[in-house]
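In response to reviewer comment 3 from the previous cycle, which asked for concrete evidence that the modeling workflow produces usable outputs, we include below a single protein chain processed end to end. The sequence was submitted unchanged, and the resulting structure tokens are shown without manual editing.
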Amino acid sequence: MGSSIVFDESVQMQRVCGINDRNIPYLELLLGGELFVHGNTLTYESTPGNPEGGDAFFTSLLIKLKDLASRMEEITEPEIFMEFQSVRSGCGASSESSKINSVVETPTSIMVGGKTVFPKSIRQKTFMRLMRERQIVFSIGPAGTGKTFLAIAQCLSEVLSGRKQKIVLTRPIVEAGENLGFLPGDLTQKISPYLRPLYDAMEWLVPPAIIKRLEENGSIETAPLAYMRGRSLNNACVILDEAQNTTSEQMKMFLTRLSENSMAVVTG
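The workflow returned the following structure tokens.
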């Protein structure tokens, strides 16, 4: 069973689908089905287990997006999500719409420093959900898939909202094929170049002044993995980055550092 929307103008369809159809995976994530582009026609096919009435929800959402495309030159994920929420919140009038509203799941999002982080794939959505539900989460995947960024976003959200006391950033000290020799400064300055990718993610989410304040009051702590032995981390979010470079002994040592109300995200 499927449903189709025909666009009057190709430019409208290009704006809804995004550059190189980059909005299509996000729309599929929201709608719980597959989308197919044929000329100026966008076809939706629900996956098994989707509720009856999913086609009606798709039609309502696409009508709103078509109208938005006539007024905006570019439509991105935040605009799509706002229209999705608008359709979803207006679904309570009829029994059929109520059925849609009860099963079309709102995607996981993370609020950090006034910014909202949305998943771009089903696996990212699962990763974000598990970070909220589990004490230890492993994220394994190729470079550039958002593992470190999403982990930083979740941990910053936990600390800034007061649910956790601090963030502990750690990784094994392994250089990428070049030996830079001894680095000047104290321990924090020595490990700083290795943790730069984590700080890049933080600086995208919150202003550097907030990061500096969190460091000064101990809410952000950096430590080499070798210095984690013997510690008990309470009320903390711990991120172990580049975990593929750890040994089995190091991993076991790290995972036993968690104490009351702490969570760990292991990426690699």
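The first helix runs from residue 10 to 17. We consider this sufficient to address the reviewer's concern, and the full set will be provided in the supplementary archive.
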